[in-house]
TrEMBL record:
InterPro entries, per the entry: SecD, SecD/SecF_arch_bac, SecD/SecF_bac, SecD/SecF_CS, SecD_1st, SecD_SecF_C, SecD_SecF_C_bact, SecDF_P1_head
The protein's name: Multifunctional fusion protein
Disordered: annotated segments: 859-889
Domain of life: Bacteria
Membrane topology designation: Multi-pass membrane protein
GO cellular component: plasma membrane
PANTHER family reported for this sequence: PROTEIN TRANSLOCASE SUBUNIT SECD, PROTEIN-EXPORT MEMBRANE PROTEIN SEC
Length: 889
């Protein structure tokens, strides 16, 4: 295939893809797609759960998948548009609920285990001696069974009392025994229940609780919370502080019922209830259970006695809470209830709570237990502001990169800018088509790929300019420049893609968007920046627009760098050593300021029409039971759009944090903008471990790739340069006191890819020059190579920094976290790629026998001094190269 035909085919493909992309992007067309926005742009609630095993189910891929399917059904019943439920790591589930602002309600609906059991009340409720007493109202509660009052005790009393009972094996028991964390001095239960001692310790730690002891309730017993007091609306909404001890022997399970629906009581009260039918097996169990209950009541029924006074009950328990304890009338149902017409659950429901219970029963119980380890909430106001900031940063980043290319490369720059426009359209279409849920980290990845795409153009354009200056025609220079530059571009982009892939696999959900967009953008840029521009330049190679070398920016004489880089290497090493020492002292003294992503706690940002006083906010939080809240005013916060407050709390338990927003609203008015992040220690450990594994994995993969593409001795200087960049970045974070977040980790991993870009450019030229300089010392080869590509390395680094500066200046707090780490890392990487990796490689290779002999021969010829670069050949020493060979690099 001729070059002309190939160029026409590529340009035709570019045009066809461009039209298809526009059809996807332009609103109103039948083929157009919507852009999916993440929670940080749209507002909503994010929940991260850790899976825990139960007696009946271990944490496996299958059980997690079944749990996620049930959670999706529950979310569908909430009516949430475009929810995302995905697995994170081996045992975590990430739930994103756009537009959902009530985090507590979402958690109750989505993450509740929903284990439903039916108990024969009088037969299973236990007295202080651990035995049932069906006729003793002091144990059963009598006609007020299930409500606070007779037979109840405090949570602490119930747990400690049950812990002294002997273990039993009941026919239908549901646990192997349960652990609780208690405060014996205050006589309160702090956390639990959990089936394993290790789990209860972890749960207490996650909740920020320090129990004085852990109590074990043996197998055969369960502690259930009494029904809420329904004497008033306020009492009905509050959780009961009364508890019963039951023998763990339910008569029916949640799987024995079907078709639950929210309904209205048909007896005339008009109260909401939940109706349901029984399965075939459930109907038989129901008949047998209610018959036994009715017969006990009949045995006690004397002439003239009110049936309700001797009626026995059955209890409906959902996740260890009594929902209802209705009685069975022995006169109306002497043989029990056959269940043909189903049954109902009633008692103090609102329509919403009845709907919630019906939905939970309908979707079924989760096969494993879930523990909420992270919760965040962003208001729609903050989301829109973040989107606006991200778009501005993207537009500015694109614009300044375009200006740089136009000024530096002229006609080539026009082609590169056109390729960037095409790249942007392709990428936007891919975002809609896949679809990619756009988040703030995703926008950061998108903006950074602008630099990736431009860097590829710079590498090739510098090669083309070299060939033009060497005397080739423009068309020949284009072909040769692309051929010689392609290897370095592919190597650099493969490394960036591998780092993005590792980050996507190991990172938390918030950073996955960044990794995904970075990876997709890298692949897309290879097409637009290499194939597309090559086809355009190939088609224009003989046109008058490219006739003059000046049109390519190659009209002036090339500015060469003639410094002895290897001779000055000891100064480079010394300077880096001093910087690293300062950073190490800062890290050892001050340490790093880890954010709540890595530790635990809660951070709340809120804006009000009138900003409250810090002391008033702190006092309100202390009165509500929050210990040592840190409150400070935030002035000029871009996300809040006005002054607001930031609250830092040590607590991370979701039930506790759910109180913050209602408290602020009640005391200071409805927040105009609200954002909260709550992280448990378990999640923080997961983030830290994932970060360490991701960094190690990236270093290993990068080393292996460099060793494969070059040789293993090239990989060691690369590792040293990368560690140099990571340590300097960490030192700068310590010196500045800037907070280390998950965004910082993502940026650090990205630095690993970007730092290699310049290193690969230099190493590629060294590899190219080695066979061209068969008599030179390796230090001379490296000096020559660095002199030839230094301008190119500086240009690529500068072009990468331009969009980073846009992020730093115009982005919100999340984008600035990325940008700051990237700014430090890219500057350090540009330095280490040239002045650390290359000298280390040169000094190491010089120890090889072949280069020792060359160096000795050169020193002998020059009187003991080895010049920085080879001297021009003389008539007495010069040997002609093979015909057709070129000396240009």
């Amino acid at each position: 295939m001729t070059d002309r035909r190939r160029n026409i085919i590529v340009l035709g493909l570019v045009a066809a893809l461009l039209l298809a992309s526009l059809a996807i992007i332009i609103p109103g067309l039948p083929t157009s797609k919507q852009t999916r926005q993440g929670l940080d742009l749209k507002g909503g609630t994010s929940l991260v759960y850790e899976a825990k095993p139960t007696r009946f189910s271990k944490v496996t891929s299958d059980s997690i998948q079944r749990t996620m399917d049930i959670m999706r059904d529950r979310v569908d019943n909430l009516g949430v548009a475009e929810p995302e439920i995905q697995r994170a790591g081996s045992n975590q589930i990430d739930v994103s609920l756009p537009d959902v602002q009530n985090a507590d309600q979402a958690q109750q609906q989505v993450g509740t285990t929903a284990q439903l059991y039916f108990y024969d009340w009088e037969k299973t409720v236990l007295g202080p001696d651990g035995k049932p007493h069906p006729t003793d109202a002091a144990v059963t509660g009598g006609q007020a069974a299930g409500t606070p009052g007779q037979g109840t005790q405090s949570y602490y009393e119930a747990v400690t009392r049950a812990s002294k009972f002997p273990a039993t094996n009941e026919p239908n028991d549901t646990t192997n025994g349960l652990y609780y964390g208690v405060d014996d001095k205050a006589k309160t239960v702090l956390c639990g229940p959990q089936e394993a001692l290790a789990d209860i310790k972890e749960t207490c730690t996650n909740a920020g609780k320090r129990p004085s002891s852990f109590v074990h309730v043996p197998r055969g017993y369960v502690i259930v919370q009494a029904e809420n007091d329904s004497t008033s609306k306020a009492a009905a909404a509050a959780a009961s502080d009364a508890y019963y001890i039951l023998k763990d022997d339910p008569s029916l399970l949640g799987t024995d019922i079907k078709n639950p629906e929210q309904n209205i009581d048909s007896s005339g009260t008009g109260q909401p209830n939940v109706t349901f039918d029984f399965t075939s097996a459930g109907r038989k169990k129901w008949q047998a259970t209610t018959r036994e209950i009715a017969q006990r009541g009949t045995a006690l029924l004397l002439p003239g006695t009110d049936p309700r006074a001797v009626a026995n009950h059955f209890a409906i328990v959902l996740d260890n809470k009594l929902i209802s304890v209705p009685y069975i009338d022995p006169q109306q149902n002497p043989d029990g209830i056959d269940g043909s017409n189903g049954s109902e659950i009633s008692g103090g429901f609102t329509i919403k709570s009845a709907q919630r219970l019906a939905n939970l029963i309908k979707t079924g119980a989760l096969p494993i237990r879930l523990e909420l380890i992270s919760q965040s909430q962003v208001s729609a106001t903050l989301g829109q502001q973040a989107l606006h900031q991200g778009l501005i940063a993207g537009i500015v980043g694109f614009a300044i990169v375009a200006v740089f290319l136009l000024v530096f490369y002229r006609v080539l720059g026009i082609i590169a800018v056109g390729a960037l426009f095409v790249y942007a359209i392709y990428f936007f279409a891919l975002i809609k088509l896949i679809p990619i849920t756009m988040t703030l980290p995703g926008i950061a990845g998108l903006i950074l790929t602008i630099g990736v795409a431009a860097d590829a153009n710079i590498v090739i354009f510098e090669r083309v300019k070299e060939e033009v200056r060497a005397g080739r025609s423009v068309s020949a220079a284009i072909v040769t420049g692309y051929r010689k530059g392609l290897a370095a571009i592919i190597d650099a982009n493969v490394v960036t893609f591998m780092v993005a892939f590792i980050l996507f696999i190991l990172a938390t959900a918030g950073v996955k968007g960044f990794a995904f967009t970075l990876g997709i953008g890298t692949l897309t840029s290879l097409f637009t920046a290499v194939l597309a521009t090559q086809a355009v330049l190939g088609s224009m190679g003989r046109s008058r627009f490219l006739h003059s070398p000046a049109a390519l920016g190659a009209g002036e004489k090339k500015r060469s760098w003639s410094q002895d880089f290897m001779g000055a290497s000891k100064w480079f090493f010394s300077m880096s050593g001093i910087i690293l020492l300062i950073g190490a002292l800062a890290i050892g003294g001050k340490g790093l300021n880890f954010g709540i992503d890595f530790q635990s706690g809660t951070r709340v940002k809120a804006a009000f029409a009138q900003v409250p006083n810090e002391k008033d906010v702190s006092s309100a939080l202390r009165s509500a039971g929050f210990k040592n809240p840190e409150v400070q005013k935030v002035k000029g916060d871009k996300a809040l759009k006005r002054a607001g407050i930031q609250i830092s709390l040590g607590e991370s338990a979701p039930q506790t944090i759910a109180k913050v927003k209602p408290l602020l609203t009640k005391r200071f008015g409805t927040p105009t903008a609200y954002e909260s992040d709550s992280i448990g220690p378990t999640f923080g450990k997961t983030v830290a471990n994932s970060a360490i594994i991701a960094i190690i994995a990236s270093l290993v993969v990068i080393s292996a790739y460099i060793a494969l593409r070059f040789e293993w001795k090239f990989a060691v200087p690369v590792l040293m340069a990368l560690m140099h960049d990571l340590l300097i970045t960490a030192g700068v974070y310590s010196l500045t006191g800037r907070e280390v977040t998950t965004s910082t980790v993502a940026a650090l991993l990205t630095i690993l890819g970007y730092s290699l870009y310049d290193t690969i450019i230099v190493f590629d030229r060294i590899r190219e020059n080695v066979p061209r300089m068969p008599r030179a010392a390796f230090t001379q080869i490296v000096n020559r190579s660095m002199s030839e590509v230094l301008t190119r390395s500086l240009a690529t680094s500068f072009c990468t920094l331009l969009p980073i500066l846009a992020l730093l200046l115009f982005g919100g707090s999340t984008l600035k976290d990325f940008a700051f780490a990237l700014l430090v890392g890219v500057v350090s990487g540009a330095y280490s790629s040239v002045f650390i990796a290359s000298p280390v490689l040169a000094h190491w290779k010089e120890r090889e026998e072949v280069y020792r002999r060359r160096r000795a021969r050169i020193a002998e010829e020059t009187g003991g001094h080895v010049p920085p670069t080879p001297r021009p050949p003389t008539a007495s020493s010069w040997t002609p190269r093979a015909a057709g060979a070129r000396a240009t690099a």
